[in-house]
User: Which sequence fits this backbone?
């Protein structure tokens, strides 16, 4: 492959999550860039090339639609746990983004592979998006907050009983870059067996 390994190392290690409060509010990322992110997501690996990822892209007035849906679902279903600040966040946060992509898993009807492998494949697709936003010098992050795990959210995203909503990928132009982050040394997480 005609890629420079040093550049790839730097790209992977300097990729950062950029959160909506760091975005330039109201500034749109070109749809063609978002299409490229989605195309890259679609090249993720999956067992048997089953490609379980699905995406729903919200932008323009669609962001308000998402905000209305998620805040009213939260109000309807949170019961005693309802918090005004959470409700307000669900109403306003999507509007800070240029695009919000719902990350979905469409389960193979034949259930040929364990669910965990489909989840892993969707995560690979999201990592492709994460690396792509870094390459295009825009901001993005994966959130599993809000209504991600609300059973009643699925149908809004075209998902059935067996499928999963796996969160949202927020995209925006960067106003405030993320500071560098560290990792615990990889040596603490790896065992080598040599003999
Ligand atoms: C599956 C998954 C779910 C995440 N959910 C959230 C979330 O709900 N809220 C949040 O602030 N960040 C979330 N993140 C982003 C992490 O906070 C972030 O990746 C982590 O702090 C490391 O920072 P970095 O991405 O800049 O390296 C999520 C990341 C992953 C992979």
Assistant:
């Amino acid at each position: 492959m005609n890629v420079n390994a040093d550049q790839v190392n730097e790209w992977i290690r300097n990729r950062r999550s950029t959160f909506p409060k760091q975005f330039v509010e109201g500034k749109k990322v070109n749809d063609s860039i978002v299409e490229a992110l989605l195309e890259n997501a679609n090249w993720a690996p999956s067992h048997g090339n089953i490609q379980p990822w699905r995406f729903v892209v919200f932008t323009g007035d669609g962001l308000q639609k998402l905000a209305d849906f998620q805040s009213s679902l939260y109000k309807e279903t949170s019961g005693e746990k309802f918090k005004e600040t959470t409700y307000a966040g669900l109403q306003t946060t999507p509007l800070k983004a240029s695009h919000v992509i719902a990350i979905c898993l469409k389960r193979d009807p034949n259930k040929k592979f364990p669910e965990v492998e489909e989840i892993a494949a969707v995560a690979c697709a999201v990592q492709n998006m994460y690396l792509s936003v870094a390459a295009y010098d825009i901001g993005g992050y994966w959130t599993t907050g809000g209504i991600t795990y609300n059973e009643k959210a699925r149908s809004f995203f075209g998902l059935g009983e067996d499928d999963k909503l796996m969160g949202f990928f927020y995209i925006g132009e960067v106003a405030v870059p993320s500071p560098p982050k560290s990792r615990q040394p990889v040596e603490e997480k790896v065992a080598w067996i040599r003999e």
User: Anything to note?
Assistant: The first helix runs from residue 5 to 14. Residues 16-17, 141-145, 167, 178, 181 surround flavin mononucleotide (CB under 6 Å). The chain has one domain: 16-189.
